[in-house]
Amino acid sequence: MLIQISSSSQFREVFKEQKTNDSPVYLYFYADWSGPSRMITPSFEDIAGDEKNEMVFWKSTQRVVRISQKSIR
């Protein structure tokens, strides 16, 4: 499952929900302008879209990084 995180409030909401879930989470921060991000993103989305995968994938732009760091402390 892939969850696109687009705001700090959404991050906090999803983070609270995930605390009660036993599934591991992979959090991917990317930047649209970054060459490595553009190379990795398609593979990340393929893996996240695999229905057999029990891991939860979060994807967010680098803009949410500072906000999310403060939210989980």
From TrEMBL:
Gene3D superfamilies: Glutaredoxin (3.40.30.10). InterPro entries: Thioredoxin-like_sf (IPR036249), Thioredoxin_domain (IPR013766). Residues 11-59 form the Thioredoxin domain. It comes from the Eukaryota. This is Thioredoxin domain-containing protein. It comes from Caenorhabditis tropicalis.
